[in-house]
Please model this.
Amino acid sequence: MSTVTEPARHTPTTPLQPEVVGPVSTWLADGWTVTWRNLSKIKRSPDMLIFAVLQPIMFVLLFSQVYGGIIQIEGSDYTNFLMAGIFAQTVVFGSTFSGAAMAQDLKEGLIDRFRTLPMNPSAVLIGRTNSDLVLNAISMVIMICTGFVVGWRFTNGVPSFLAGVALLLLFSYAFSWVMALLGMVVRTPETINNASFMILFPITFISNAFVPAESLPRPLEIFANWNPVSALVQSARDLFGNTQAGVIRDTFPIEHPVITVFIGVTLLLVAFVPLCIRQFARASSR
Model:
């Protein structure tokens, strides 16, 4: 007699769950893979990079050439005074890419596809913020070249200049985590621009970026002196050798700007990295 072979039973497959904890080398490799994926999108959408560098060039030309002859800075040329503020504004505005990209990826379901892969979930956030750091670095190079064209110079030597650039990029990286969290909280990518501008405009314009803080009305002067962006701008001016004569240093952030920036960066990373990872787990499952 012939025996009948029972057909093989097919068990339903379940998506691979990402490893929450893994070797450091695997975590770094996952982060690098996502970073490269985000950067490779620029090849397909070069307009994103073009507009990212055109905006700071526009601000440099607008403020230095249009308003430079009107705004007088005691003991300093306005162009040298301005550039640190433009640098700070650009890297802070550049952090919005993290929020917009996270909101778009959530809308398109890409985050759910990442969750099916055997990868550390934090690698998605690391890759997102790392790629924005690269974009900000490219923007910085373009702005530095534009600054040289309009007459800006640094006078404290190359090491201090490089330290100032590094400090600006470090702050931008920490602030990218703030924007990444905002991008996961809002419901649509269209909302992220309006939501982010409500944060970015006050902290960049109510500061010492474009005018001395002491020239503002007293309530705004107090806000500007304790604004972390003001500390970032002042530290960049000090390191570039562009500090204006007679600057009033009657608050801790302005008296110790570099220390204040490091404290701010540490607080931002300690607070927002865990919040981003937690919100990522919630948002990707909604």
In short: Residues 1-22 have pLDDT under 50 and may be disordered. The chain has twelve helices and no strands. The CA atoms of residues 183 and 256 lie 32 Å apart. The radius of gyration is 23 Å.
